[in-house]
Amino acid sequence: MKTQKILERLENGNPLFWTVTGIVWVGLLGLADYLTGNEITFSLFYLAPIVLVTWGVNQAAGLLLSFLSALALLGAELAAGQKHSSPGIHFLNTLLPTIFFVIITYLVSELQRSRKEAQLAARTDFISGAVNRRYFDELLQMEIDRIRRYPHPITMVYIDIDNFKLVNDLFGHKIGDEVLRCIASELKSQLRSTDTIARVGGDEFALLLPSAHQLQAEVVLAKVRVHLEQEMRRRNFPVTFSMGVVTCLTPPHSAEQIINMADELMYEVKNSTKDDVRFMTWEGMNGRF
Question: Tell me, which fold does domain 133-286 have in CATH?
Answer without folding.
Answer: Alpha-Beta Plaits (3.30.70)
